[in-house]
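Task 17 of the worksheet. Students: predict the tertiary structure of the chain below and write it out as structure tokens. Keep your answer in the requested format; marks are given for formatting as well as content.
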Amino acid sequence: MVQPPHAREALAGVDGCRGGWVVALRTPPTGIVTVTVVPDVPALVRTTRRCAAVALDMPIGLPDTGPRACDTLTRAALGPRRASVFPAPPRAVLGATTYAEACERARQATGRALSQQAFNLLPKITAVDSALRADPDWAARVHEVHPELAFACLDAGRPMAHPKRDPRGAAARRARIDVAFPEDFEHARAAIPRRDAADDDLLDALACLWSAGRIAARGALRLPEDAPRDAAGLPMQIQA
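Model answer:
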């Protein structure tokens, strides 16, 4: 039986989406889950300000030279889903405005170019980094997670057999979420336009919320166990 998230504290699971950020929020004392889309990081901060744990699917601590141990360990833990973990960009690429510039900065820092996926996420990574550095109180509540690691933990450590956009993979993830949060995906899907968030965004946010409960209860898997800090003092650790 899947243990529900810590119900006595407000918790949030957050995933990036086309409309900005999907926020799955569980609030006491009822433990009711609401899923919304907020447009930007300032709105995300306001929405999650009172949460005991905010589980965020986005790189937080950024290396000076790569790779991060947490990325390597998470890839190893995910087996067939290892490709879902992309190397976090080095801190030096923040502020790059073109892919060519970002790749050149990455090569200087790590000897390797930046992936297109990482470059596409740079605006969100930069906005999160700025908010964390400017707001220590919020930063203390925010934890980096990976939905695929959460889905694996939801099934005794067994990674998903199929990618999330494969119909079989989508159905398997939905089944896990329906056990952890009965009817909450269905309610979220009815309320949130598909132009703002796809099915996998909603499922990922709910998986992150499940991890937030484990983090608040001090029962989360932590990779690595002891988190090193980056140059800005942010932890380089993935939890689930």
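Marker's comment: The chain has one domain: 1-86+125-240. Residues 1-6 have pLDDT under 50 and may be disordered.
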